[in-house]
């Protein structure tokens, strides 16, 4: 039977976990058809049929209540909104009173996730990432159980209760750490037994993997930048070949835990530093700045300072310091080589943005044109912040990888970068795949990318 009529503008429905749709989100479009970036959320009373306004969310700034779940018994929506410059968790009553209650906020980082279990997807806690991903449980029984599991699995730093049986007597748990990709367990609360189900990456069983350490380093202006340092196991952390590995997004962040990219390079003998530069998400509005494109000078400065810190600490051999990035990270790798040509001795850019005007043009005549234009902005930074437009300033050798089906960043970005580098007298290399998208989700392709990028780094470093 039909629960709701299909409507073009509806972006999501949220149920109460028991089969009733209580909230819907409607994208807001201009008269000319362009997406405004606003989403109107509406809700129904428990016994009602009419939709009433719940909130208006500006997706470009994350301002406004963003509902994620409904608790039928409490008759509230759980969702995220800004509080003192950071994202926090609130409940909003669904009874017409608009009663809003602050559930969890942090003074250091955003609260950005819910813990939900069972067929009814009951909300039992919330998560945030400081030095590591952590959870606070609203359900004291589940919270106590999580503590017990943590004590039972002391070698796993991340214990996540991800689901349960209908009666919540059997729980599905995944336990992982920085140097272990994870194990799925089944916990029986009645029998008090914890049984392994399967390993997340059984191919890595028995291998010595690297530890990831939360660190902070000073930016040029003195701001302390958080990041994660992964060192090759069994090696003295002195004078090593090293990589700065900026994340994509730019509105994203790296977290402590198993990371296949950093683990591969560490296994090959490299020190790897993943900076959460200004422009990263998760640390509040002030840290996010405008974004990593409009505030590129700050973001790229923080990325370059990560390399300088590795050298100053004696961890990195200054003649064997490279930079590797994917998507925005690829942009950051190229732009860092523009700004400080002598710092990095090799650049690997995977599916990178290379020209900000091209990025805007990619969304021209699509519903997201206005959003993309506002995000990227206008002004001198469109040229100054585009590595392809400043290719002649790059002195380090460059290797690029890109999938032809990439709809996030068109493959034309990498081809344009190669064209500009060759015009400047460089000899860049570009590896492409005709049938892959932005994420290169193919084992053979990823293996090729890893092995060829490492060989390129080694050759560039002269080792």
Runs in which pLDDT lies below 50 for 5 or more consecutive residues are none
Distance between the termini: 67 Å
Strand order, largest beta sheet: 16-17-19-18-20-21-22-23
Q: What's the total count of β strands?
A: 23
Number of helices: 10
Q: Sheet with the most strands?
A: 8 strands, mixed
Percent strand: 25-35%
Shape: globular
Radius of gyration: 24 Å
Helical percentage: 10-25%
- Average of the residue pLDDT scores: 95
The structure class reads: alpha+beta
Helix-strand layout with pairing:
Blueprint: E1 10-15, E2 21-29, E3 35-43, E4 52-58, E5 66-71, E6 76-83, E7 86-93, E8 100-104, E9 111-117, E10 122-129, E11 133-137, H1 140-152, E12 158-164, E13 170-177, E14 180-188, E15 193-199, E16 212-218, E17 224-230, E18 240-244, H2 260-267, E19 271-275, H3 285-288, H4 296-312, E20 316-326, H5 328-339, E21 346-350, H6 356-362, H7 369-376, H8 381-384, E22 398-403, H9 412-423, E23 429-433, H10 443-461
Parallel strand pairs: 18-19, 18-20, 20-21, 21-22, 22-23
Antiparallel strand pairs: 1-2, 2-3, 3-4, 5-6, 6-7, 7-8, 9-10, 10-11, 12-13, 13-14, 14-15, 16-17, 17-19
Helix pairs in contact: 4-5, 6-7
């Amino acid at each position: 039977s039909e629960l709701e009529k299909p409507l073009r503008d509806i972006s999501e429905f949220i149920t109460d976990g028991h089969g009733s749709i209580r909230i819907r989100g409607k994208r807001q479009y201009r008269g000319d058809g362009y997406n405004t970036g606003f989403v109107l959320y509406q809700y129904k009373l428990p016994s009602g049929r009419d939709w009433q306004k719940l909130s208006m969310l500006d997706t470009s700034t994350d301002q406004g209540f963003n509902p994620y779940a409904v608790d039928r018994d409490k008759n509230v929506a759980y969702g995220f909104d800004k509080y003192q410059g950071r994202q926090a968790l609130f409940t909003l009553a669904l009874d017409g009173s608009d009663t809003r209650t602050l559930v969890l906020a942090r003074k250091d980082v955003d609260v950005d996730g819910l813990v939900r279990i069972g067929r009814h997807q009951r909300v039992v806690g919330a998560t945030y990432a400081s030095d590591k991903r952590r959870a606070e449980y609203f359900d004291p029984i589940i919270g106590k159980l999580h503590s017990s599991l943590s004590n039972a699995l002391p070698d796993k730093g991340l214990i996540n209760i991800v689901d349960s049986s209908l009666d919540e007597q059997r729980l599905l748990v995944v336990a992982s750490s920085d140097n272990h990709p994870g194990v799925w367990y089944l916990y029986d609360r009645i029998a008090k037994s914890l049984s392994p189900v399967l390993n997340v990456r059984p191919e890595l069983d028995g291998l010595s993997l690297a530890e990831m350490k939360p660190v902070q380093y000073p930016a040029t202006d003195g701001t302390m930048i958080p990041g994660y340092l992964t060192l090759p196991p069994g090696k003295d952390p002195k004078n090593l070949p090293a990589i700065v590995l900026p994340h994509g997004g730019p509105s994203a962040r790296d977290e402590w835990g198993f990371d296949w990219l950093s683990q591969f390079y560490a296994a090959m003998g490299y020190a790897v530093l993943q900076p959460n530069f200004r422009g990263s998400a998760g640390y509040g509005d002030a840290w996010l700045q405008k974004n990593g494109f409009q505030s590129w000078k700050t973001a790229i400065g923080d990325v370059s300072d990560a390399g300088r810190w590795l050298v100053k600490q004696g961890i990195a051999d200054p003649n064997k310091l490279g930079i590797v990035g994917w998507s925005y990270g690829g942009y950051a790798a190229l732009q860092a080589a523009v700004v400080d040509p002598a710092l990095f001795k090799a650049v690997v850019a995977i599916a990178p943005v290379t020209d900000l005007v091209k990025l805007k043009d990619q969304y021209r005549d699509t519903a997201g044109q206005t959003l993309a234009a506002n995000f990227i902005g206008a002004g001198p930074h469109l040229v100054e912040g585009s590595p392809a437009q400043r290719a002649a300033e790059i002195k380090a050798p460059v290797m690029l990888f890109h999938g032809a089906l990439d709809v996030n960043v068109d493959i034309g970005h990498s081809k344009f970068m190669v064209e500009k580098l060759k015009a400047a007298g460089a000899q860049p290399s570009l590896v492409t795949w005709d049938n892959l998208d932005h994420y290169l989700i193919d084992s053979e392709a990823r293996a090729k990318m890893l092995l060829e990028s490492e060989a390129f780094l080694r050759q560039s470093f002269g080792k």
